[in-house]
Structures are given as structure tokens and as C-alpha cells.
Design brief:
The chain is an all-alpha fold. It has one domain. The protein is built from 7 helices and no strands. The protein is globular and about 50 Å long. The relative contact order is 0.20. Keywords: Membrane, Transmembrane, Transmembrane helix. InterPro entries: DUF4126 (IPR025196). It holds the Pfam family DUF4126.
Length: 181
């Protein structure tokens, strides 16, 4: 059961990085520092004060950048590979598997793949918003993504099975929408 819960936690946090890269890492850092979750031995740095200040600074900069019209679209392009890396790192940090090859493989495929899919969906939504509203609707999209990232990260930390169900539903809806067009 512990392995299953750690996979649910990893997938929930990695999906959150599809919305915002640094915010789920910051929330995982805060949860780790408070003892609510615990990363693997190689990832104990995630619960440190230097990680907190670094992730806090990066989160504030990322959130602010998404509120600047057209800069947000540029950030989406740059953030695509970073979301996959962040999703891989977060899922690998919490999945409890002793074999490093299996751990990193699963982290990349499940965590990175989930983050990449979610990020693709949000990037397409922002692109549509930019075209439909000339960028004026993008702050609404950014606020929604911030709320989704915080909400899904919190859900993954406190109710990991519920987070997994929500991520599966979210990916199903995204793939259904992408295949329909």
C-alpha cells in the first residue's frame, strides 16, 4: 500500500508541475519540512531551508511572468521541457522503489509524461486564449492554473488516491479533446 500511495503522490505532484513548475516543488518542500510527507534518501535536500528560499523565489518569478501578456506564451515554450524535468524529479523523489533504474524510468515515463501532457493542455489553452482575447484573457487562465497547481499539489499531499483519480480524469479529458480536433 505504501508503494501505491507514493506513486499516487508522485503522479499528483508531477501533474501539478504541468500547471506551474516551481509551485508544486515549493509545496512539497513545505510539506516535507512539516513532516507531512517524506522524500527518498537522495532527495532529503527537498526539505531544507535553502531549497525553500530558492523555490519560493522561483515560484514568485514564475507566477509574475505568467501575468505579462505574450511573455506568458514565451514562458510556455521554455517551460515545456522544464515541466517534464520537474515532473520527473518530483515523482522520483517520492516513489518508493529501491532499484534506481526502475525508479528513474518510472519517474520519467509516469511523472515526466504526466507533467508534459498537462503542460501541453495548458499551453494550448493559453494559445487559444491569446488568439481569442488578444492576450487580455490570459490573466484569468494564469490565475486558474495557479489555483489548479496549488489545489492538485495539496490534494496529492493530503489525499493522494483522490489526486490520482483527478489526474486520470484530467488526462482523459485532455486526450479526448486533442483527438477530437
Amino acid at each position: 500500500m505504501e508503494l501505491f500511495l507514493s506513486i499516487c503522490l508522485g503522479i499528483g505532484l508531477s501533474a501539478s508541475t504541468g500547471f506551474r513548475i516551481f509551485l508544486p516543488m515549493l509545496l512539497a518542500n513545505i510539506a516535507t519540512m512539516n513532516g507531512w510527507i517524506s522524500p527518498g534518501e537522495q532527495f532529503e535536500w527537498l526539505g531544507s531551508w535553502p531549497a525553500f528560499f530558492t523555490l519560493l523565489t522561483a515560484s514568485v518569478a514564475e507566477i509574475a511572468g505568467y501575468y505579462i501578456p505574450f511573455v506568458d506564451n514565451l514562458l510556455d515554450t521554455v517551460a515545456a521541457p522544464a515541466a517534464v524535468i520537474g515532473g520527473t524529479l518530483l515523482s522520483t523523489s517520492f516513489i518508493e522503489i529501491d532499484n534506481p533504474v526502475l525508479l528513474w524510468g518510472m519517474g520519467l515515463i509516469v511523472g515526466g509524461g504526466t507533467a508534459g501532457l498537462v503542460h501541453t493542455g495548458t499551453g494550448l489553452l493559453r494559445l487559444f486564449s491569446s488568439k481569442a482575447t488578444a492576450g487580455l484573457g490570459n490573466p484569468v487562465v494564469s490565475t486558474s492554473e495557479n489555483i489548479a497547481s496549488i489545489g492538485l499539489s495539496s490534494l496529492a499531499i493530503f489525499l493522494p488516491i483522490t489526486a490520482l483519480i483527478l489526474v486520470v480524469f484530467l488526462i482523459y479529458m485532455l486526450l479526448k479533446r486533442l483527438l477530437k480536433s
